[in-house]
Design goal:
Blueprint lengths: L1 H17 L6 H8 L3 H13 L4 E4 L7 E4 L7 H4 L2 H15 L7 H13 L3 H8 L18 H16 L1 E9 L4 E15 L2 E8 L4 E6 L3 E10 L22 E8 L4 H5 L8 E4 L5 E8 L2 H8 L5 E5 L1 H18 L34
Antiparallel strand pairs: 1-2, 3-4, 3-7, 4-5, 5-6, 8-10, 8-11, 9-10
Helix pairs in contact: 1-3, 2-3, 5-6
């Protein structure tokens, strides 16, 4: 319930900010679709939180609520040069996540920071991306205007708890399907934006890649959040999937061991050295497409010890992959990876099968 209150109060704050001449409590109640009593409590909560929300007028029914045009004016006195540099540099990290729902607002905030700097400061800060850069995950790129529009509409629908109807290309079925969804949350993961929503027709949550939504309609019907999402979304998967975690036991060869040891792949991981210089890894994650895709990226340098079903699935994938190349390419000794990155494994030998619960 607290999460719903915060979302509603944020929407109230945005409504007040957008209306320069002010807005009445009745207008706010109509926009947010709650009672005037609830709006009064929200306004009080916003004031107690420190937002410069105030009212003008004598009559309680007609007085207009406004937001100070410079609610954070005092921030400039508390920001150090290092603080400003860190905020400015975070622009690189934000821009790596294409399609972020608040991209326009963040861009405006960064522009204001930049305008407040003198020429020497801007020249100095412009050099910072040379020492820190960021790259979006697979599939990241500059989204088109249609995708940005869809993302923004979904954000509004999620905040106001309004059902959406959409035409969506389902990768698992390899065709477009129609869905009616109760949007619960937007999530950033693997360089993309995802909608997590309750689909009444299936009686479960489904995850939808925003980039595959072909048509979207925001309905007038609202819904109550009667189902709970986990605190750490997708925390049990190596990707953006749902599923009960299993004990996954792996063995990496000696050449791959230093690379695998140098990163935290999942919070559940337990490592142990093997007698031949390899590395044993135990994970507690869902056995889904994201896990198989990750394993395939290591090629023949990892072996699945358990569970048996996963080992069989990997064997089947490699067998079918080998058939694609059998007799079509000359057999050569394994080459050195010229110019290979020190941060990553050799190129994957195959592509993972499209399995899993995500739509």
């Amino acid at each position: 319930m607290r999460n719903a209150e915060v979302i509603r109060q944020w929407q109230v704050l945005r409504e007040i900010e957008a209306r320069r001449t002010g807005v009445t409590i009745h207008e706010l109640a109509g926009q947010v679709r709650v009672s005037t009593r609830t709006i009064r409590r929200d306004l009080q909560a916003l004031q107690e939180a420190g937002f410069a929300v105030f009212d003008e007028g004598e009559d309680n029914e007609t007085k207009r609520w406004k937001l100070d045009v410079q609610p954070f004016k005092g921030l400039q006195d508390g920001l150090s040069v290092s603080d400003v540099a860190a905020l400015y540099l975070s622009r690189t990290l934000v821009e790596a996540m294409s399609g972020w729902p608040l991209a326009a607002e963040l861009e405006s905030a960064f522009d204001k920071i930049e305008r407040s700097l003198n020429d020497r400061m801007r020249e100095f800060l412009a050099t910072l991306p040379q020492v820190l850069s960021a790259k979006g995950g697979p599939g990241a790129g500059t989204p088109g205007a249609a995708q940005v529009d869809v993302t923004r509409k979904l954000l509004d629908a999620t905040r106001s708890r309004r059902e959406v109807s959409m035409r969506y290309f389902s990768a698992s079925n390899n065709r477009a399907k129609n869905y009616t969804v109760q949007p619960y949350r937007l999530a950033l993961a693997n360089g993309g934006v995802y909608l997590v929503g309750w689909v009444e027709a299936y009686g479960e949550f489904r995850t939808f890649a925003v980039g595959r939504i072909e048509k979207l309609t925001i309905g007038d019907d609202t819904f109550r959040k009667t189902h709970e999402l986990p605190e750490h979304l997708f925390g049990q998967s190596m990707g953006v999937f749902w599923g009960e975690p299993e004990r996954i036991e792996l063995e990496f060869d000696a050449r791959m061991a230093p690379y695998v040891r140098g990163r935290v792949w999942h919070e559940s991981q337990v490592l142990r050295d093997l007698p031949d210089g390899g590395l044993g890894v135990v994970l507690h994650v869902s056995n889904d497409w994201a896990l198989r895709s990750w394993l395939l990226g290591f090629g023949a340098r990892v072996r699945v010890v358990a569970p048996a079903a996963l080992a069989s699935s990997m064997l089947d994938e490699f067998t079918r992959g080998a058939a694609l190349y059998d007799g079509r390419a000359p057999r050569r000794p394994e080459p050195r990876e010229s110019g290979a990155s020190e941060s990553g494994p050799p190129v994957a030998l195959g592509s993972a099968a499209r399995r899993g619960r995500s739509s």
